[in-house]
Amino acid sequence: MLQPIFRTMNRFVRYDPGALRLVRGAHLMITVVTAGLLANQLGPFANGVPGFTLSVLAAAAGAHCLLFTPISTRRQEASNLFWLGLIMTGLAVVGMVSELIAGENTQVVLQAMWIGFIAIGFGLEGFGPFWLRTGRMVSIYWLFVIMSSGSGSPGFWLPAMTVFGAVLAFVIRIGFWRPSPEKTYRRVERANRQAMADYLKLAANGQLSIDRRRRLNLSDIASLRSELETSIDLAEPGSAIRGLSLESAAMMQLALEVVRDATAALSPECRAELITNATYQQVVGQVQEKVVRSDSPSGETPFDVAWAELAVGFQKGDKFQLLRIAQAFERIWKLAEGTAQLRADDDTRLEVKSGNWWQLISWRLAVQAGVAASVGYGIGIYFNLSHAYWVTITVIVVLCGSLGATMKKTVQRTLGTAVGFVCAILLEPVLAGYPELRVALIVLLLPPVIVLFERNYGIAAGIISFLVLIGLQTLTGLPTAEFWSRLYDTLIGAAVGLAAAWLLFPNRSGDSVERLEVSYLNACSEYLKTDSGPNDPGYTRLKATAHQVLATARTYRTERAPWSSFTRSSSKLDTLVVLLADYIALYRQARANVLADSDKYASVKTLVATMDKRIHDEIGAVQDGKGKQAMPGLAEEWKAAMPATAEDDDRFMTDWVAMLYHARKVIRCLDGFREEVA
Questions:
Q1: How confident is the model at residue 374 (pLDDT cuts 50, 70, 90)?
Q2: Which terminus of the chain has a lower count of CB atoms within 10 Å, N or C?
Q3: Could you tell me which of 78, 68, 54 has the C-alpha nearest to residue 141?
Q4: At what angle do helices 211-233 and 246-265 cross, to 10 degrees?
């Protein structure tokens, strides 16, 4: 009972390395509470505008600034908050002027303008990430302009409270304490190193034969590596922080898997002899210490592979597996050095794509958003729904740049809202007599929402739905019977948004996946032709392309098989794409080590060229949709190419075995890649 609870809490912590998102949520909570309390005090001086209206406007402005500013460096966040506050203030000025001009038709005019702002906001997506966030912010914040005009126009107080909320958000987020990105990185790096050291101990002693235990350990390492990626992204640009890079961590995991796989492949007799060998255990301890201690002395590995002679008298393949273990130890040792500079760039400009502005506008998405918002709001008005704007808000939330992403967001929003609705219904009798407890619960749940918003939107949507219902009941006396409207308004909005994405110029991902696959395989082929190390810019670009293929492929699978994509049971392409890049890098490095000794073993150079051609032919065959390519006699040539004298050269043999092993892994990844994309 306690173990699942512990794992759930542990997973929540890993959504937020170093409490970075939790602190951001705390800043949002402080901003909302402070803005609301201070703005309410201005009520007597606002010429008839209720203090509650001022509170809502100020709190909404501050909350929107923080919600649409992603966690980054202090300088980058300051720039984002400034520009978002400026844009929101301009929006409020437009709202104030529109109210003055519209007169008695204010509500109709503002509602019509809302549809226009939604279409414009979604059209901005093509300009880059900043403008994508800005477009969503504009689309949602205009609702508060509409709502504030219902009980008497706030006039000048509308932009005034917007400025007040934005400035307060800026001061609290930029001026208050926040976790140090460097200390966060160090903590996460230590956790990564310790997890990999623990896995190494288990793998080296053959204690990961149970598949479930291996998956749990690998899941922990993968989660920690995700934290490492976030921590590296948050390091100050141009800082001198050096340590374990994301690429090194990924390569170390592959080497750990080699140790596990090779140990499991040993004959039972050889494995038992190996595990009890004192020299081997000493080497394992040395490698473990190197992995854990990033400040340990650098240099060549202080151990040899004499224990590989244990294979004498055992099965023929045991020597091969022992050499694989030795080579993996050497790779782990070198990768554990952790001397990469984490962030060398310094670019705090707003993200804007190049090109003519009319070419960057996302016309297709703008049309989808405009039509869906019009239909959704029209349905709400026609059927006289009590909270018709919930329908339109749902459209804004679920509509994304592709059909697959819209489908996924629709399911997350719908299920999350349903869970939040059920929780609100069940807890309402308990909270009914304690309004102070309801307010405290609303305030305290804001930080967890921020933690989960980007990592697990389904859970975040459930908490948001619960907060909206309990908050409206506390502030406006919303009857419990109207809780149902939150649910069916969300269902209507989700259906309208999904229908628009499906029927109006649908942006399907099939063509994009095909283009990215071809580009990725070309990049793999080109990268294979070079000889630089795995941390060079070419490898970084290759990994970036791999992740782009993954993201698009997941979207495509969501379009074709929604259920399997949500259950994560649809494809092994995710693993194949990433591993292909890693194994090519590992093969290339082992190849360079082997070729360095080609003067001693003349036949090796020609054979390496043959293996390179074999891999390039296989890449071309996958691109052309052909079956597996065969190269008759290659296996025999490899066996015959090794001179007898080379068998005593332990270093050359480890590199030779590593090259063979990684070449085979590249071919297997390409075979699986062929099956998945067929």
A1: very high
A2: N
A3: 68
A4: 170
Query: Can you give the pLDDT at residue 32?
Result: 94
Q: Give burial (CB, 10 Å; 0-12/13-18/19+) of 60.
A: buried
The C-alpha R_g of the chain, in whole angstroms, comes to 29
Tokens encoding 391: 């329908």
Is 673:584 a contact under the CB 8 Å cutoff?
A: no
SS3 342: coil
The DSSP call for residue 347 is -
User: ∠ at Cα 47 (42, 51), nearest 5°?
Assistant: 35
pLDDT, tens only, 277-325:
888 888 888 899 888 886 655 555 555 666 666 655 666 677 778 888 8
Which residues share a beta bridge with 341?
242
Strand partners, 242: 341
Structure tokens at 295: 């400040």
Tokens of 302: 């202080």
Output phi, psi for 210, to 5 deg. -80, 120
**DSSP-based three-state secondary structure for 242:** strand
Kindly write down the DSSP assignment for every residue of 105-118, as one continuous string.
GHHHHHHHHHHHHH
- Residues contacting 1, CB < 8 A, separation 6+: none
Helix ranges, 383-509 (H): 389-398, 403-431, 435-453, 457-476, 483-503
Q: How confident is the model at residue 348 (pLDDT cuts 50, 70, 90)?
A: very low
CA distance 164 to 404: 39
Give 8's pLDDT tier (boundaries 50, 70, 90). low
Are the C-beta atoms of residues 406 and 499 closer than 8 Å to each other?
Answer: no
- Give the span between the Cα atoms of 26 and 446, in whole angstroms: 7
